[in-house]
Amino acid sequence: MIALIRYTFATALHTQRYLAPVLLFTGLMGVLTVNGSGSLPPAYASSAGALFVCSTWLTVALMSLDDTAQRAIMVVAAGRSLSVLLAAIGTTLLSCLVLMVFGLFFPLWMGSYDVRPVDFLLGTEAQLTCALAGIAIGVLCSRLVFRRQGYALAAAIALVMVTVFTKNLPPVNQLFRLMATSSNSGDLLAPAGRMLVVSAVVLAAFTALTQYIATRKD
User: Fold this and answer.
1) Which of 24, 66, 126, 141 could form a disulfide with 70 if both were Cys (CB 3.0 to 4.6 A apart)?
2) CB of 30 within 8 A of CB of 62?
3) Is the pLDDT of residue 42 over 70?
4) Burial of 23 by CB count in 10 Å (0-12 exposed, 13-18 middle, 19+ buried)?
5) Whose CA is closest to 25, among 95, 84, 111?
6) What per-residue confidence (pLDDT) applies to 218?
């Protein structure tokens, strides 16, 4: 698995497929969090939202690195197709962890916030929740499920819009509403933790569904 993740990282760096989603993330961070003030939960909700969009795009990009023939070679070398799929997910998740650090500290640098240690824990929970949700959507909208890129793009946009704007839909919309209506990070830790669990379950379910569809197609 480690070798597969290293290969995926190396291929992503070589092809620069990561560049567009990362630039989108930094651009959204600049627009949404610059010159902010007050409590941190709303700012971290913005950071989480930016990471949600970025992780979706990044997942689709990383899972489209190899053409059909190259993927077949990787599957044979790895021994099973699930390992290749998990390696792509692991690579995206590790990339999101790096971006999370930027998402935690960039608002503090560019704004004037009341900072408490519990705020960092909430920000980590929120960003990880949105990263897992974004990866889940990216996996389901990847080349393994949609052979045509236009269909994959339309499905990804639709799922992102539904996830963000459907009122009280867990985990993303509900998390955003909680963080927008409360300035006390301590009160939000437990609800945010529940949304994190929901995101992890959704990712596991979407991964299993993608693997099933890809196996049937192969």
Assistant:
1) 66
2) no
3) yes
4) exposed
5) 95
6) 62
* Domain range summary for the chain, segments of one domain joined by +: 2-217
Structure confidence at residue 36 as a pLDDT band (50, 70, 90): low
> What's the mean per-residue pLDDT of the chain?
89
Two tokens, residue 133: 């949700």
SS3 label, residue 79 = coil
- Residue 205: pLDDT above 80? yes
Identify the bridge partners of residue 113 per DSSP, sorted by sequence position.
Answer: 38
Nearest to 173 by CA among 48, 21, 24: 48
Q: Which amino acid is at 214?
A: A
Cα 207 to Cα 86: distance, rounded to the nearest angstrom: 8
**59: nearest Cα among 170, 192, 162, 206:** 206
In sequence order, which residues have a C-beta less than 8 Å from that of residue 195 and are 6 or more positions away?
125, 129, 170, 171, 172, 174, 175, 178
DSSP code string of 99-148: HHHHHHHHHHHHSEEE--HHHHHHHHHHHHHHHHHHHHHHHHTSTTT-SS
pTM of the model: 0.93
Tokens of 95: 């990339």
Distance separating alpha carbons of residues 189 and 17, to the nearest angstrom:
34
